[in-house]
Amino acid sequence: MKNYKIDRYRPGDLVEIIELFKTTVREVNKQDYTPEQIMAWAPDEVDQKFWARRLNRYTTLVARTDDGIVGFGVLSPNANIEMLYVHKDHQLEKTGTDILYELEKKAREKGMKKLTTQASITASSFFEKMGFKTIAKQKQLLRGVSLEGYSMVKNLEE
Ligand SMILES: CC(C)(COP(=O)(O)OP(=O)(O)OC[C@H]1O[C@@H](n2cnc3c(N)ncnc32)[C@H](O)[C@@H]1OP(=O)(O)O)[C@@H](O)C(=O)NCCC(=O)NCCS
After folding, report:
1. Mapping DSSP to helix (H, G, I), strand (E, B) and coil, where does residue 1 land?
2. Ligand 1 in contact with 48 (CB < 6 A)?
3. Within-domain flag for 128
4. Binned average pLDDT, 10 residues per bin, the chain of 158 residues
């Protein structure tokens, strides 16, 4: 049941968003990555100032219920979906679809012609369903640990 609304990020969301991110990576993405990779991706200590700057400057949308945040997504000024995370207890309820749809709307409003993303192994099927195409396998180095993923693109003009 959809009881959330999607709106802009507010600075007061930061701590809850970081917590959601850590929990989702640790509980959901662990199906596709080693424990070492998971802890490099979502370490105990994250750089809060870096996160705050990015979420403030980029287009960040948050799906919120009366009980808290159930997902968030981040679009960069160069048309990249930087982040898209849904709460571990609310996977597969279409929250990711709804957030991505709203981010795509914002992208079109800004005149963006295509979107890119660096999808995790876990999220690649989701992004394919949303119309993204894989252009390359990629490896990202995070805190000295290599993580596999996919470089994907979606044409917004079709
Ligand atoms: C990827 C993610 C954001 C998708 O959000 P979601 O709300 O769970 O997905 P939705 O319910 O909107 O799913 C839409 C479709 O994608 C499919 N899908 C979603 N996740 C999937 C997965 N891991 N594997 C296969 N299909 C998946 C759903 O089955 C659904 O298909 P349908 O339309 O045929 O029913 C969410 O699973 C998530 O937080 N993943 C972990 C974090 C992550 O990897 N984020 C990306 C960072 S690169």
Report:
1. coil
2. no
3. no
4. 90 98 98 98 97 98 97 98 98 98 98 98 98 97 97 95
Predicted pLDDT at 2: 75
Please report whether residue 123 resides in a domain. no
Residue 158: per-residue pLDDT: 78
| 85 CB within 6 A, ligand 1 | yes
Residue 126: inside a domain:
no
Residue 21, ligand 1, Cβ within 6 A? no
Say how many domains are in the chain.
1
Measured in whole angstroms, how far is the alpha carbon of residue 109 from the centre of its chain? 20
Would you say residue 18 lies in a domain?
yes
Instruction: Please list, in sequence order, all residues whose beta carbon lies within 8 angstroms of the beta carbon of residue 34, skipping any fewer than 6 positions away.
Output: none
Give 110 Cα–ligand 1 centroid separation in angstroms. Answer: 25
For residue 40, what are the CA distances in angstroms to 11, 34, 45, 51?
25, 10, 10, 16
| Single-letter amino acid, residue 24 | T
CB-based burial, 8-17: b 16+ in 10 Å, e otherwise? ebeeebeeeb
From 1, 18, 61, 126, mutation site for ligand 1 pocket: most ligand atoms within 8 A of C-beta: 126
Which pLDDT score is estimated for 1?
A: 59
Res 154: pLDDT = 98
